Amino acid sequence: MVVVTLWEQVFPSETEEAKIKEIINSEIHEVREWLSRLEAEADVIPVGSTVKGTFLRGTSDIDVFVVSPQYEKLFTHVKYWKPEGKVKRGELLIWNYRKNGFEVDLVFIPPDYPKIDTLNHTSFYKENLSESMKNEVRKAKAFFISVGTYKAETGGITGVAIEELIRKHETLEGLCRFVVNNQLEDVWVQDPTTTRSRNLLASINPVRWRQMQEACGGMLNGRSVSLRSFTPSDFMTRHKGEGLVRCDREHDRATDFSTALSLCTKSGNELRSLEADAKFGCDAYVNDEILIAVKATPTVLPPSKEVCIPEELEDAVQAFKKAHPEVETYEKQGFVCALVERKVSHPDTFMKEALINRMQDSGYVCKVVI
Fold first, then answer.
1. Residue 3 lies in a domain
2. Which residue segment(s) compose the domain that 318 sits in?
3. pTM, entire model
4. Among 23, 197, 199, 311, which residue's CB has the most CB atoms within a 10 Å radius?
5. Contact 309, 320 (CB under 8 A)
6. How far, in Å, CA of 162 to CA of 51, rounded?
7. For position 223, which CATH number holds?
């Protein structure tokens, strides 16, 4: 039996749902009137969980796309229409402002935007998810938020992927059984709104998938579920005993996360190139600051290592002796061997220092916490 704590807390009240619908309709009307005054050729398309009916209580925002050949010009004009707003960092042109207590993202794209067909998700899932399925989507979102595995910008699962998996498996438990029973590299969840190949799980990195498997396995085995948001303290607890590097934010959340994880992985690969018997792992968390968990094992390596070359490779043997004139070689079962000093004796320290150097070269200010 699955034990959960107050799933109802993630379901919006009828009053909240009615208020959201009213604000969306009002905002669409205002945007269209603004565009009409500018005599702009544009389509206004409300999208996202508030329109589909899969948003969580108290955490809803409103997403409206303005599709126009003049999208860049319109974006420069919007600050005069909504001067209280601000640019939202990301890959798209987004103007963010608040209306009646709700956040509104006004997104400007051209008609030939490569992913424009993703706007079809709203109508598709609004029509193809039953009311009970929509509540299961809410439960799944809250669950993955609580374990730090939600949102593409930090390597997690997206809302659309959750909606499709609930459409296929009907419940959070069914979704979790799918996650537990499959390896990420073996699964493909096709976007049903396009004929093009598009895997809705493409945003998930292997670390997040393993964390999803662990969380789902625990839930299916009866572990109680806490629906609070995942915090920096949770991240540090998850990686207790590992190295921790803290960096200041510089860019949007997705860029900071991908930079941190990429440079940590490069540092690990550098370690492996120098000491093949060392292993490493990386994870990152981005909120008000960037936290990077660094795991390198073993913590300490012996100061020297045995290097052996087949004795029939005479050129290689001579090259090795020339490169290491200070060491004494010996024969061992058809090999010419020597004990050479390691380039790295403390893998964890090496990785943290290499990571900080790479982050600083990319414009970040970092320090070792642990």
1. no
2. 304-341
3. 0.87
4. 23
5. yes
6. 16
7. 1.10.1410.30
In DSSP notation, 271-315 reads HHHH-TT-EEEEEEEESSEEEEEEEEESSS--SEEEEEEETT-HH
Mark whether 219 and 139 lie in a shared domain: yes
Residue with token string 């990195």 = 205
Q: Say whether both 206 and 100 belong to one domain.
A: no
* Residue 159 CB contacts under 8 Å (≥ 6 apart), including other chains: 49, 54, 137, 141
Confidence at residue 78, expressed as pLDDT on a 0 to 100 scale: 97
Confidence of residue 6 (pLDDT cuts 50, 70, 90): low
**Of 85, 113, 141, which closes a domain?**
113
**What does the alpha-carbon distance between residue 153 and residue 222 come to, in Å, rounded to a whole number?**
30
Query: How crowded is residue 206: how many other Cβ atoms within 10 Å of its Cβ?
Result: 11
The verdict on residue 118 lying in a domain is: no
Structure tokens at 42: 């544009």
Same domain assignment for residues 44 and 83: yes
Residue 5 has pLDDT above 60, yes or no: no
In a domain, 310, yes or no: yes
Q: Contact at 8 Å (CB) between 188 and 199? A: yes
Each residue's pLDDT tens digit, 53-108: 999 998 778 999 999 999 999 999 999 999 999 999 888 999 999 988 889 999 99
Q: Which of 210, 215, 135 is nearest to 170 (CA)?
A: 135
Asked if 185 contacts 116 with a C-beta cutoff of 8 angstroms, the reply is no
221 domain residue, yes or no: yes
